């Protein structure tokens, strides 16, 4: 995968050819070389080339953009009205100051970390080291110049003294450079910790993790943003801090030194050159922000489609669907590579101009800047040995001045790159906040009619589950049921049936507050407080495909709790396992209930029984049994319903199987057209299992149809 832009190559610090040329100039001292440099046709060719490249490349870039397929054109990722700087600052504040006390609620109790809040001190330490580092590098160059002068003068005592000085400086340098690197890495890590913990605090509350994937969909792969983008953002920020400070200190120091050595003309020429180069580069610089963001998006999609195949490997293998999977994966890969091609082309044109201005042209400019004072300025009267020492130092000062100004140019592009990451991480924050406060106006999450909190209806506390005039609507705004009203009293077991996609499971997405309630009132136990969301306490949900957690057998059973309830022991868990004939699971591991394995490898029937054990461990008031007995025998089913009755658990079963009706007293039938009926079960008959709804069916699958019919009625 290519980088989103080529690396800027700056003039190197060891341009020996240049030193050689200067030495030749001094040696001949006839002014010929100087005139050559100043009147060289190559200088004019270079200027002509730069102008041609500038106009040619911008023409080509425009043309290329026009011809680019729609999917390859970078899209704006700036969805918020805030400026990038504001977004950047909001992230940096969290990364550096942890203002929300992120991680306070987490199991790690990050806030108690004694190192917390040290980020500012790391930055202060880094700043001091960078200033010191610049000083010793300059000192090294200066002493090297003196060493050269003493060599030319054949002064052995001074020569040894300078060598000792250089040795001391080098030891200091070898201490300072790794310290700077280590502080940069520490700063990036600490920022990452703060940001990640802060994101976790927001992501894992109010079901934001569910809503971001199912209701909003603007953040394609939130996992990628949390695990990868945050890391890159922090790394880029801490490097940027260094990259910003370092050239500023260097420019100040070397401008001062240059002025001292050859007058203000030296630094002025370099600065003028850099400003012109910066302007020309600005004109041909592609939008790295968008490109970097788009490449990350496409990388994320490519990775997630591979993940999908990995997670469903067994099913794909049963269907021998590898060819189809491969086609889909390669289509995604093709999108990624064709966009990367586009990025490479953009980088090429930029690289040509960039290399000329930052790598090659400075050589000529350096010769001019160093040559003029030798022939016409302050250096002219110096004897050869002194001149040699001064030139050695002067060349390094000019090179470092270029180097520092070049770093400032590069900084501009690094900022653009960082702003791409800022957009990506900030979008995650923005969507999380909007979902938390229910004010997302995203097309996939139409809540404009809903009140704050993501709800247009009300969820109220009651001993019983009751739906009163509720509309069930999907996140795509398809109405699944209208004016739904029924109540499930204690021990009034109900079965819910209807065609596929009719909205049976969606009823419980509303009950568990996974989906917003658009209108009507839902009554349920534990409607308020920390357990209001989800179906895991007084109401417990058992799906057809059980959810297995990573961890021990004990953690499987007690999930979502993390500790055994008071008065419970492993022996009680064993009894429950035995009741469902899976007690052998506890004996499979030498660690017993602490034994860990990949629980997804259990057979589906074993997993369903384990989920039932979980139900009886929690003993809720209501059990939502969503086709959760599809893989177990009729006897086990009987055991389940018998035990529920014995434990006072009221069952709400979603099932297509008539055989289960005998365990229930009421039936709720959806017709898949928005209609429903509520009836008592006496005895199951062909007729009673029909999905037909008697009478006028005036419910509709979407608002448009609904409005159209209401208009017709009027
Ligand atoms: N996150 C979602 N976003 C948009 N639509 C969804 C989402 N989840 C479910 N739906 C849609 O809601 C409709 C009802 O789904 P639901 O799972 O309630 O069906 P069901 O009656 O339980 O079906 P089945 O008997 O097949 O399990 C389906 O058309 C489904 O595509």
TrEMBL record:
Residues 704-714 have a biased composition (Acidic residues). One of its GO terms (biological process) is very long-chain fatty acid catabolic process. Keywords: ATP-binding, Membrane, Nucleotide-binding, Transmembrane, Transmembrane helix, Transport. Residues 465-698 form the ABC transporter domain. Gene3D superfamilies: ABC transporter type 1, transmembrane domain, P-loop containing nucleotide triphosphate hydrolases. Residues 693-703 have a biased composition (Basic and acidic residues). Pfam families: ABC_membrane_2 (PF06472), ABC_tran (PF00005). The chain crosses the membrane at residues 42-61, 120-138, 160-184, 270-288, 360-379, 391-409. Residues 689-714 are annotated as: Disordered. GO terms for cellular component: peroxisomal membrane. Residues 143-355 form the ABC transmembrane type-1 domain. GO terms for molecular function: ABC-type transporter activity; ATP binding; ATP hydrolysis activity; long-chain fatty acid transmembrane transporter activity. Belongs to the ABC transporter superfamily. ABCD family. Peroxisomal fatty acyl CoA transporter (TC 3.A.1.203) subfamily. This is Aaa ATPase domain-containing protein. The lineage of its organism: Eukaryota, Discoba, Heterolobosea, Tetramitia, Eutetramitia.
